[in-house]
Write a structure and sequence with these properties.
Elements (H helix, E strand, L loop, with lengths): L7 E4 L10 H15 L3 E4 L15 H9 L14 H24 L1 E4 L22 H6 L5 E5 L6 H9 L3 E7 L11 E5 L2 H4 L1 H18 L3 E5 L17 H18 L3 E4 L7 H21 L6
Parallel strand pairs: 1-2, 1-3, 3-8, 4-5, 4-7, 5-6, 7-8
Helix pairs in contact: 1-9, 7-8, 8-9
Bound molecules: zinc ion.
């Protein structure tokens, strides 16, 4: 399906972005910017059926997170509140809706964080529930491959890949965060400033080889903005132009093979407006690839 002149369908809801939680609130800045620039068509996600979450995380943790039982409910590092819980659940609902839209039309966005540090036993690293592993958990008959290009390694998704036979994780990062590669998981540490950006592109080329070896039904791209050179957390040190090239490379992997792709924006710790600008570039890259490259369905 061609989306040459149309906007990218993007799931978002005000519930994603409670003002009292700055990490989530900035998603609202991104959503407004994308809408203002007419890059996306915003859609509200449906409500997440809670039983779908059963089995993804340990019951003890899930129940504590749903009910607010401390200290477990805030284990991920964000102080629990009903609004933090509801924001997380809304983002996960958007993840499933965007996944379905990607399967229908080829590409969709969830203006959410992927929560790649959450492991089975609990949330971790500001990630309450793993929204990337959720897709594989919810759709056991589909092969789901995550291409995670955040500054931080996707250690949580890596752990889930070892648990879920239909989940694959490729992580390219500047900060390892415990991500070492393993069962259905591949880890590439690249610091563009010292290793050169060529090395980053080589890692993406290896990701492409892994895609061809395993032929996923759905790609999930975690387009982190925290690997940008001006980000306080960045060791990967990519320039704005290099981030754009990274995005182009990942979207091309999907487009050239006709594999549906869902993308999320993930981390970014500069001012919200600067992060929103980088997020907008990711959407521009998606549209550019969809315009330029025809899908070769095999
Ligand atoms: Zn990160």
């Amino acid at each position: 399906m061609q989306r040459s002149s149309t906007r990218i369908p993007a799931y978002f809801d005000d519930r994603y972005a409670p003002v009292e939680e700055p990490l989530f609130a900035r998603l609202g800045t991104t959503a407004s910017k994308l809408q203002r620039l007419r890059l996306v068509e915003l859609r509200s996600p449906a409500t997440l059926p809670i039983p779908l979450l059963r089995g993804l995380h340990d019951d003890r943790y899930l129940d504590a997170f749903l009910s607010g039982e401390e200290p477990m409910a805030s284990r991920h590092g964000i102080r629990w509140s009903p609004r933090v819980r509801d924001a997380t659940l809304a983002m996960l609902a958007g993840q499933l809706d965007a996944g379905e839209e990607a399967l229908r039309s080829g590409i969709a966005m969830n203006i959410a964080r992927g929560f790649h540090h959450a492991v089975h036993a609990s949330g971790s690293g500001f990630c309450p529930l793993n929204g990337l592993a959720l897709l594989a958990h919810a759709w056991p008959q589909r092969k789901v491959m995550v291409i995670d290009c955040d500054e931080h390694g996707g250690n949580g998704t890596e752990e889930f890949a070892a648990r879920l036979p239909n989940l694959y994780n490729v992580s390219v990062f500047g900060t390892r965060f415990g991500c070492r590669g393993g069962t259905r998981s591949w880890a590439f540490m690249v610091r563009a400033r010292s290793d050169g950006f060529e090395r980053y592109l080589e890692a993406l080329h290896e990701a492409e080889t892994i895609v061809d070896a395993h032929r996923p039904d759905l790609l999930v791209y975690q387009a982190g903005a925290d690997c940008h050179e001006d980000d306080p957390k960045s060791l990967a040190g990519l320039t704005t132009a290099q981030l754009f090239e990274r995005d182009i490379a990942v979207f091309r992997i999907a487009r050239e093979r006709g594999i549906p792709i869902l993308f999320v924006v993930a981390g970014g710790y500069q001012g919200a407006e600067r992060v929103a600008r980088l997020n907008a570039n990711t959407v521009r890259a998606a549209r550019w690839v969809w315009r330029r490259h025809s899908a070769h369905h095999t």
